[in-house]
Write a structure and sequence with these properties.
Helix content: 10-25%
Largest sheet: 6 strands, antiparallel, barrel
Amino acid sequence: MIINEMTKAEINALLSRASIGRLACSRDDHPYIVPLRFAYHSVFLYSFTTVGQKVEWMRNNPHVCIAFDEIDATNRWQSVIVNGLYEELSNDPSHVDARATAHHLLSASAEWWQPGYTKTVIRDAERPLEPVFFRISILETSGHKAVKTTS
């Protein structure tokens, strides 16, 4: 097996195919990571969730990281990391177009609202389903891939 750096074209192709990524955020030097559905378009990743720890943390610190993987075998995989900035797409008139784009891109997948808008019970308390659309401005990407060798 050989591990190579991915080209920008390969990274963009994986982002276009990927649907679930792992979003990492932090607060007070504490990391938090959670799987979410994303849709890639141009220089943004769009997503949808409910208010909770990740949203509170991203509101406080908009610097985030998202990991996407495609794993065919232990010796054949691709992994992309996106570093970016969180931007909440509120009901404010200035976000109407971005919210419409997010909804259009995300709803192209069946069950697009999952896992972001699913009943959640934490410590015996049901969390309210308060929807939040957001996008990540892509600041930097990197990727690596493993390819099987014949020798």
